[in-house]
Amino acid sequence: MEFRTLAPEHDAALAALIRRCLKAHGLDIPGTVYFDEGLDRLSEYYSAEPERRAYFVLMDGERLVGGIGLAECPMFENCAELQKLYLDEDVRGTGLGYRLIERVEDAARALGYRRMYLETHTNLQAAMHIYERSGYVRIDKPEAVVHATMNRFYLKAL
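and the corresponding structure tokens:
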């Protein structure tokens, strides 16, 4: 397994992975990233401001099996939002989710962020377990939440 920075050649496989994961958990509904306009071109978004954003894919040879990103979170001072942590079904339960989180937190620190925020949904029980075991603390829903369907919110000091 190898981490790579998201590039245009990864866009289609990443969008397919995200949609597959959301559909499997009943979250292929409005108000989730499933319908985000830029989902098929995530490399454009993350490369547009490399001093504030990053996205990493996890590759098994040439097959994309996971990904995780971060972008500035203006709701909190010196904070990045952990975004779009997804793993292919056949590699879940192997500890790779923790490795992805470590990778994105290291990148956040390197960009000068001191906190990480994330939002998720109660349908994603495994994700909530990983977040909590990684030190994320549940908080009340911030007023400025974009994905209205998300119903769990977390914050972590880096």
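(Above: one complete record from the training split.) The CA atoms of residues 78 and 113 lie 5 Å apart.
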